[in-house]
Amino acid sequence: MTDGTRGPVTVLGLGSMGSAVAAAFVAAGHPTTVWNRTAGKAAPLVARGATHAAAIGDAVAASPLVVSVLAGFEATLDALAPAGEALAGRTLITLTSGAPSEARRVAAWAEARGARFLGGAIKNVPAAVGAADTLLYYGGDRAVYDEHLPTLRVLGGETVHLGDEPDLAALYEAAVGATLLPALLGFFEGAAVLASRGIEARTMVPYSAKWLRMIESLLPLLAEEIDTGDYTKLGSSVGLFHDALASDLAVGAESGVDMSWHAPMAELLRRAVADGHREHSVTALIEVLRTPEA
Fold first, then answer.
1. Is 65 in contact with 151 (CB distance < 8 Å)?
2. Collapsed DSSP state (helix, strand, coil) of residue 12
3. For 167-185, how does the pLDDT look when each residue is reduced to its tens digit (9 = 90+)?
4. What is the spatial distance between Cα 178 and Cα 125, in angstroms, rounded to a whole number?
5. Mean per-residue pLDDT for 45-64?
6. Which homologous superfamily is 9-175 in?
7. Any idea what the Cα angle at residue 18 is, between residues 32 and 108, rounded to 5°?
8. Which residues on adjacent β-strands are paired with residue 52?
9. What span, in angstroms and rounded, lies between the C-alpha atoms of 242 and 266?
């Protein structure tokens, strides 16, 4: 807005993330309309100053900018189906996860109904929505992104445009998010190993945090090896990890911790050795991932 006022926004979906998004808009002074299948979830936001629309068509019609925080692209299409005509002339932004093909399908559906589209993702927890260091990224028409950037920055100080393709946020969400569950499982496994000796998980937090920072410092080198195909710089070889497999199993047996989730990783290491990558950096595992076993 050019007159100093805040433009109206509609938020669809009031789960924990959707509620945080709507609350951030309300706190920033945006007239905010909210909709959710379970209407009772709107009450805390209405108490803060939001307007509840009982029908999704009314919610869409209330604002030129519609932000969907529903649970996936299929749920977005299903919820918006009765409100398709109301989207004409509006901008639809999705903050959800799913396959890139699903993001493209929602973009095409919205554009066929006269709406402009941005696909986005929030790379943080609900409590961090609105924080200066919270990252959100978007894919779609750069002009649409630039137009709404002041509003989008309400949700996080680190706001990035990835490119004009509408599925880029979904693509990066899958690529970046792939590290989350394995990292958490590793932490949970470590906590279980310590618990087998009566040691609390909190005692390893400082060391795990330092370990993760070390991994962070390696990411540029890992990316360089992947991009160049030169798997000789890291120093930690496929063979090193492969030969440690027996020790991992021994730790599991000694502590009584189920380490069966290691099996697919072990198989990748065995295939990499069989393919001649024993002396290459462990980064060479990407070659195995690129050529799935028939």
1. yes
2. strand
3. 999 999 999 999 999 999 9
4. 16
5. 96
6. NAD(P)-binding Rossmann-like Domain (3.40.50.720)
7. 90
8. 34
9. 7
pLDDT of 275 over the 80 cut: yes
Kindly list the distances between the CA atom of residue 180 and the CA atoms of 31, 64, 81, 160, 183, in Å, as whole numbers in the listed order.
Answer: 35, 35, 33, 21, 5
Query: Structure pTM?
Result: 0.88
> Which sequence spans correspond to the domains of the chain?
9-175, 179-290
Specify the fold of 179-290: N-(1-d-carboxylethyl)-l-norvaline Dehydrogenase; domain 2 (1.10.1040)
d(C-alpha 135, C-alpha 126), whole Å = 12
CB atoms within 10 A of CB 25: 30
- How does strand 116-122 pair with strand 135-140? antiparallel
Distance CA 31, CA 25 (A): 8
